[in-house]
Amino acid sequence: xxxxxxxxxxxxxxxxxxxxxxxxxxxxxxxxxxxxxxxxxxxxxxxxxxxxxxxxxxxxxxxxxxxxxxxxxxxxxxxxxxxxxxxxxxxxxxxxxxxxxxxxxxxxxxxxxxxxxxxxxxxxxxxxxxxxxxxxxxxxxxxxxxxxxxxxxxxxxxxxxxxxxxxxxxxxxxxxxxxxxxxxxxxxxxxxxxxxxxxxxxxxxxxxxxxxxxxxxxxxxxxxxxxxxxxxxxxxxxxxxxxxxxxxxxxxxxxxxxxxxxxxxxxxxxxxxxxxxxxxxxxxxxxxxxxxxxxxxxxxxxxxxxxxxxxxxxxxxxxxxxxxxxxxxxxxxx
Length: 334
Ligand code: SAM
Ligand code: SF4
Description:
By secondary structure, the protein is of the alpha/beta class. It has a domain at 18-163 and 262-332: TIM Barrel. It has 10 helices and 12 strands. The chain has a 12-stranded mixed β-sheet with strand order 7-8-9-6-5-4-3-2-1-10-11-12. A hairpin with a 5-residue loop joins β8 (239-243) and β9. α3 (107-116) packs parallel to α5. The mean pLDDT is 93. The protein binds S-adenosylmethionine (SAM) and iron/sulfur cluster. The site of S-adenosylmethionine (SAM) has 20 residues, from β3, β5 and α10. S-adenosylmethionine is lined by residues 27, 33-34, 72-73, 75, 101-103, 125, 164, 166, 193, 195-196, 198-199, 329-330, 334.
């Protein structure tokens, strides 16, 4: 994609038009590969950006060519009145893509207000259709609520809806095929996300990553042949496949086995107003101070540029040099 002049192009020629916004680090469940079971240290509420501050930041980012937004967390639906923010973001001229990533637990009750606020694209996190296993993974018994949320969203006409499943070895194997079958029946693409070293308890190691190749082989053997679907946006992170029988698609976010850093187009705003050039970055830049001190848009633009200019070629998960960032996934915003 050609970038307009003076836009967010880093030292490796990558044009950044994609902003992920975390609205909270809190969550109503406790997936073990993300959060500890108890005693989670949440960010003080006063440190969390207000909707007005987020909107102000997004407007500046849009003036630099950002046109794609994803709202995430923590669990974004635990943020009070999220629909108010969605409406603000959906109304910003220049935004051509607005999406939400959620665990789906509160979706049934909020789907309609979110839809009315202008949201259409949803990723719902769901690792298993087995209630007991769901409870073990998330330490909560909320599978029925997630399924209700998916039903409600489909009835309202959300689309595309995708399912995110975290691919941990010795965990997801038995769920890969049932999830894909569920997706085929429901017209929902399932995205298998390789387990990344961003869990709060330091559980990750390479041996626990279920790779895209392993999952692909299993799906092809048990459901049927698959073929690659080239993404219209070559910078999209997922490797996408469709079943050759024409029913359904799946995707892989293979951050570990096939990193997509060379095509990265993302920056991230944490719920406490830090700007990050990578999920795995060890440094971040404060923008909350600027927003709260009434800094002019030019100053915020300068900081966004500076952050993008610092961007590295890619994460180094696959090297001995890799150091996991101090903030886990729920705190950065996945
Ligand atoms: N709470 C929402 C949810 O679960 O979708 C949004 C935030 S969550 C951090 C975003 C995504 O991160 C989830 O959909 C889940 O698939 C993924 N995730 C969480 N921990 C992960 C890990 N250690 N490795 C890979 N993906 C992870
Ligand atoms: Fe919560 Fe999402 Fe982390 Fe699970 S992955 S604990 S739902 S933030």
